[in-house]
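Q: What would this chain look like folded?
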Amino acid sequence: MPIVFSEYTQYPAYLINGNFESIFPSMFRNIPVPFNRFELETPDGDFLEVDELIANNAKAVILSHGLEGNSRRHYITGLAKCLHASGYDVFAWNCRTCGGKMNRSLKMYHHAVVDDLDVVVGHARSKGYQSVYLAGHSMGGNISLNYVLQEHNHSEIKGVAAISAPINLFDCVNELSKWNKRFYQNRFLRKLQKKVVEKAKSFEEVKPKAKMKFANFLDFDTEITAAYHGFKDAFDYYYRASPAYKLEKLNVPVLLLNAKNDPFLGRYCYPERFAEQSDLLFLEMPERGGHSGFMIRGREESWADLRTLEFFNQLEKNMTPPINSFSETMIKDISGH
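A: My prediction, written as structure tokens:
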């Protein structure tokens, strides 16, 4: 039943397709946020860099970024600002190697680093919040989903918003290998390869990998992700890190906001059949939005920011989120102007 009819139509006219809607905000949208940064130690002797916005609220949101992103990307700062202004404390964490410092251990990150997210959740739990929510863009959406899809997770987690989430990694890898989308793949791989070179300075076993040229994600995930993170191979990783194969384990409400013109996502990233039968998965598929774009003409907030806020607010009131997303009038009510 919960397939949400999306009323997102307020996109700027100059963003003419999914590529423009993805790239333009990535390059030009800038939302400064007065984060306070601190480090959390991990059980394996490493650390996570976390940015926080704290006002002693009773509720908190933990934000997870996308592949080769960080807590200062526009889609995280925009969401943090929107949520914090509406009474949520915010913890925006950085995956290992993404916060500006190279981590101590060999471990980097991937779409299922639920153990690292659990460190941040544990920190939030120690603050005594009445409710904690998870929200993430792209890979961060997958990490958030994989966290609540575990057999055991903390009861404080009241809901999840996953935006532009590639919930089927086989599908996403295949999509980004297409000739007209390799721009995205190659850009990611260049950044990831630099990190492998950095890791090789501290770890002898990585030195042979630092000389490799990764032609595609399958190469990288075979030689790095699977090899150093406990997966048998890249295919084992794609299966185990894809929330699409575990959705029946959902035990909290989830908003999955995936635009139909997202250049990263293939058809298996839109679980319509499951959503139709689920009371917990609210699937919203606007025609437009691109990948982590969703800009609204004349506004600082994105559609993803406001939809996440509305979804969490409904859960805070113990209300079932509506299956029609809000209108322009409701946007004004939510954001106060």
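Residues 68 and 327 are 33 Å apart (CA to CA).
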